[in-house]
Protein 1
Amino acid sequence: MTPLILVLLFIILYTYFGYMLLTLILGRLRNKQVKKSNIRPNVALMIAAYNEEAGIEEKIKNSLLLTYPKEKLRIIVVSDGSTDRTDEIVAKYEADGVELVRVEGRVGKTEARNIAVSNILDEIIVFSDGTTEYAPNAIEMLVRNFADEEVGMVSGHLKYKDSTGSKMGAGQKLYWKYETAIKKAQTYMGSLTGSLGCMTAFRRSSYTSLPANIIEDFTEPLMFVQKGFRIVFEEEAICHEETTTKSSNEWRMRVRVIRGGMTGMLFANKVLNPVRFPVASLQLISHKILRWLIPVFGLALIIVTTIGVAQEPENLFIGIIFILQLSFYLTALVALIFEKMGMHNKILGIPLYFIVVNSAALVALIKTLTSRLEATWETDRT
């Protein structure tokens, strides 16, 4: 049992810690810089919205405060068949230059963006969500990277706000700091293989229209990688969003996002070719595919160590691994109970977030293998 346990432990530890260390080392060795310059191309800020009446006005006001030259910036709200007051609210700001593109029939975020992009001639497009708050200089910080002809897409820097102090929020913030460190290292390695859905800038001329049931946040970056472009992380292009306060909402979102990522990976599978894309394939296998399979390896480790404890009760190594797992999962259970009782403890957020993300990955894997991804979904805002 011990050799199998060691293999499973190695995979899990490599996925969460070894890969991060590897990116930091390779990033330092390659140290691929971006040639930045204070260029001012025409930019279209595209805000995706479906029934966003609760927050769209704040988003518009935030967008109007951006310091990018007004004559160079278009603000476009793409309403995907909204049935609330979203369109009415957006129309109030027509005199301020805010444009409304309404797509009838609720076709889904990807198709709505496809339709809107087809009518845009601006050099750079920035995708944003209806609840994301941009720093005033965010657009300038994004577009300066396009002075480098190798750069096709730029990912912004998301910083989560946790106003409620929830356990889920604490876990989400810590996880995102971990992800951000990896994004910085991947840029120095050469390129990212993903971008921030709520703040992504790209060259309009190289955009690929995707099928409606493909989540573009994950797949569109892979299309840019296939075309030979770099995707880079811009640390100074800052945006803010509130963390999710309820584990149930985070779980549903993670199922959708991970499932979309799996479907997108199948669609853009050429990037997995290690001969053509050695860096990208390493990143995708290590940081995506293995991450999505962690619940499978985790369940296997539980089963194997349980059998090992029963068969070899004198084996100290197996016993320690078994107890550590049991303690970790019991802590996550306690965190979930505390959440239901309205009690907050940020330390407990780490095991809780781990369980939420990985149980979501398992469900996403099953759904990907057994059913087709839908083009639309309902968004939780708490």
Protein 2
Amino acid sequence: MLDELNHMTRLEYPRMLMYQNPELAHAQHAQLQKIEQLKERRSALQHYKRVLDENLQKTAGMRLVLILIADR
């Protein structure tokens, strides 16, 4: 229980301070928005990379087939 209290205190105390200071609250909000934007960008890049990898694998497979056909 003491660990939970310590954990909550570490989370809630900075929030209480933040809400008492409007400039700090605004800066915190801007940082959270930037973090969300970066997360979305990361997800999009991961999707793009996955699609690119799949296409490269297909292309490599087609090249192998063409090489095998040409060797006949």
Protein 3
Amino acid sequence: MSDYRFFAKPQPMPLAEIAARTNARLAGREGAGDIAISGVATLEDARPGEIVFYDSTRYAPALALCRASACFLREGASAQPPEGVARLFVADPHRAMALAGALLFPEALAPGSLFLAAGASPGAIVHPTARLESGVTLDPGVVVGPFAEIGAGSVLGAQASIGPGVKIGRNCRIGPHASLMHAFIGDRVIIHAGVRLGQDGFGFALGAQGHLKAPQLKRVVVQDDVEIGANTTIDRGALRDTIVGEGAKIDNLVQIGHNVVIGRGCVICAQTGVAGSTEIGDFVVIGGQAAIGGHLMIGAGAQIAARAGVVRDVAPGARMGGAPARPIREFLRAEALLSRMSRRSAAPSREG
């Protein structure tokens, strides 16, 4: 059950409508389509009036005891919920569950105003040359610099800082304490609390006489529908823009170096670091704590395992793991071999 202190209690939605919106085939007792759904939950915690999903046999025992009113599952699933639970058959139960949650709790999808208010707070500071379209919300402590532009419907959380000339598109959400400098932001972008965009890249000409700082003269360009997690940092480019492609999703605590180009639909998990001037193709997935070296090419559709260390180019569609990263099958075979050798060396000797 959701805590309505933090998320507004939703209007109950008929199960038939949820089925239609999720492209599900509804099966159950007569009148199942009229069941009112007002929440989402886990299999273990669900109550009547809530909907759940099932997509792994490891949760079959919990499914058998589930008390929810409805359950998303795949056609032909080996396990089924109790007789009184309506079934919604879909191609992807997790995706259907996410959509149902969004239908019931749309405000949970992005950070909103901490004051649940619209318009500019008296505590916000907006430079006279800045341009704000209609319906922009500024929480207390927001600073908007000279010649900045903010699109209609965007919400900026408390203490967010928008630097001179920064452009933010329409219907964006900028979390508390985020700072945006030297940046162009597309539409429907979500930037969570504490994000830093557009600060200096880490560029120095090294030498015995001292390390000479190289001017970072370009920008960060964030395309439409990107989401950037809390406390992630993205440096502006030195001689070319740092780019985050349309629909990319970046987790918390990620570092993106200067001149990096991230393709469309990429997913980058927490604590990953991408060094400068690397290009990442469309729909690449990078696991947590991975380290990606500089000046590399990561091909479209590649998958990089968690904690991998990538020091060479990666071919499109390749699956890589380990440090240094190598094809995932090779990495797993090596890990299995090392494990066997370790067990053998630890076994007590039978001699004597």
Protein 4
Amino acid sequence: DGYYYFVDRKKDVIRRRGENLAPYDVESVLNRHSSVLESVVVGVPSPLGEEDVKAFVQLKPGVPEDPKALFEYCARELPFFMVPQYIEFIEAIPKTANQKAQRFQLRGRTGGRQFDRTDFGIQLRKP
């Protein structure tokens, strides 16, 4: 239709293996999963250069952690370059007074228990 639509802030765009991706696109898929209450996706440094995708996931009350199921779901629903490399489950997403996710706090977060997609043998489909 000839218009540009901005879905995220430029500073939040993740550069992964030559692709630019908006965290919103990954979050919208994760948030549709039946066990997910809310998610926030950030770029984290990659040993290969650029960034890897990391998802912070707040589960619905009483739902057990199942990282493999979330990785498999993402691999089915997302293009290969958008599938998170890491998932970390958190009790609550840190928010501003306006209820926006504080991505900067999550980018710098250390000490959490993160799960790596490769540990579960998740195969990504390439075009």
